[in-house]
Specification:
- The chain is α+β, with helices and mostly antiparallel strands and 106 residues long.
- The protein contains one helix and four strands, in the order ββββα.
- It has a four-stranded antiparallel beta sheet with strand order 1-2-3-4, covered by helices on one side.
- Residues 1-106 form the UBC core domain.
- InterPro entries: Ub_conjugating_enzyme (IPR050113), UBC (IPR000608), UBQ-conjugating_AS (IPR023313), UBQ-conjugating_enzyme/RWD (IPR016135).
Length: 106
């Protein structure tokens, strides 16, 4: 999956279809512009009915990302929909980086 000019991409890692590596480019006009982030996506066997586990592998300083790279994003938790795909997930995380948040990750 390549996002072209959207600044997101993801591909399977090795031979496993359940383990992917994604990249996100910081959004234009944000403090993350010009930065590139590597993420891991681990898909459960019951995907798309359960969300993947997505973590930043590159250190990311954001209120919704903890020191271990875990992301606090509703679509990866209780707001998950089987309609979401890899592109949607990465674009949502990219959007999260550009949004101002005062709530720390939990």
């Amino acid at each position: 999956m390549s996002g072209g000019d959207l600044g997101v991409s993801a591909f399977p890692e090795g031979e496993s279809i359940f383990s992917w590596i994604g990249t996100i480019e910081g959004g234009k006009g944000t403090m993350y512009e010009g930065l590139s982030y590597k993420l891991s996506l681990r898909f459960p066997v019951d995907y798309p009915f359960k969300p993947p586990i997505v973590k930043f592998e590159t250190m990311c300083f954001h209120p919704n990302v903890d020191q271990f790279g875990n992301i606090c994003l509703d679509i990866l938790q209780d707001k998950w929909s089987s309609a979401y795909d890899c592109r949607t997930i990465l674009l949502s995380i990219q959007s999260l980086l550009g949004a101002e948040s005062r709530e720390p990750s939990q």
